[in-house]
UniProtKB/TrEMBL annotation:
The keyword Transcription applies. GO terms for cellular component: cytosol. One of its GO terms (molecular function) is DNA-binding transcription factor activity. It comes from Allocatelliglobosispora scoriae. InterPro entries: cNMP-bd_dom (IPR000595), cNMP-bd_dom_sf (IPR018490), Env_Response_Regulators (IPR050397), HTH_CRP (IPR012318), RmlC-like_jellyroll (IPR014710), WH-like_DNA-bd_sf (IPR036388), WH_DNA-bd_sf (IPR036390). It comes from the Bacteria. Keywords: DNA-binding, Transcription, Transcription regulation. Residues 12-131 form the Cyclic nucleotide-binding domain. This is CRP-like cAMP-binding protein. Residues 145-218 form the HTH crp-type domain. Transmembrane segments: none annotated. The keyword Transcription regulation applies.
């Protein structure tokens, strides 16, 4: 049954063998969630990870009273793994963007699984390393580049992880408000509006209500200071 799911490229599950995936999913309890449901809450102490089987979630934290969007996770990703490995409270809140199906696995069973499957443990380490590299790249961008470059690189990343091919380009298939996107990029909303207009005028993106389509992905990914 596990092989009927479609895993996002680069996700934890996509990097496992079919046998290892089946062994992991056998440990979990499958649940469905509607849009807007919080799967994990920042600061809570709970004892499970969620393996996303279908759908997309937003990962956010509260900073100085502001809800800051950190990342997007999709089918094949594991959420809650940090608390599982450290035994500490949740470091972020995870909220569904639409209908989500996930497999809930206790920390004990997940950690035991990693111990018994070295290939999965190595894949988990690689995923966590990739996430750290992404976060470090965003910090560098925030310090070194103007808003339109920072926005362009985030959009290029989102197009790669959760984009859907359309006749007009790669649709970022996540309903993000400008406020949410602004917090993810680390700029004020008026600056975000200006940056979106700049990218649109350069024919790198097109926009609709809560919708962004990347028209020129190579051009967007290659953005740098003039």
């Amino acid at each position: 049954m596990g092989e009927s799911w479609r895993w996002a490229a680069g996700s934890f599950m996509a990097g496992l063998t079919p046998a290892t995936r089946t062994a992991l999913l056998a440990l979990g309890t499958r649940r469905s969630f509607p849009r807007g449901r919080q799967l994990l809450r920042e600061g809570e102490r709970t004892d499970h990870v969620e393996v996303l089987l279908h759908g997309i979630v937003k990962v956010s934290v509260i900073a100085d009273g502001i809800d800051v969007l950190l990342s997007i996770r999709s089918a094949g990703d594991v959420i809650g793994e940090m608390a599982s490995l450290t035994g500490r409270s949740r470091t972020a809140t995870v909220t569904t963007c639409g209908e989500v199906v996930a497999s809930s696995i206790t920390h004990v069973n997940f950690n035991r699984f990693l111990g018994r499957h070295p290939d999965a443990a190595l894949r988990m380490a690689a995923v966590m390393s990739e996430r750290l590299e992404w976060a470090n790249a965003r910090r560098t961008d925030f310090a070194a580049y103007p808003a339109e470059v920072r926005l362009g690189r985030v959009l290029a990343s989102l197009a790669g992880s959760c984009g859907r091919a359309t006749s007009g380009g790669t649709l970022i298939d996540v309903p993000l408000s400008q406020r949410e996107l602004a917090t993810m990029v680390g700029i004020a909303q008026p600056t975000m509006q200006k940056a979106i207009r700049e990218l649109r005028e350069r024919r790198l993106i097109s926009t609709g209500y809560r919708q962004i389509t990347v028209v020129d992905l190579p051009g967007l990914a290659a953005l740098g200071p003039d």
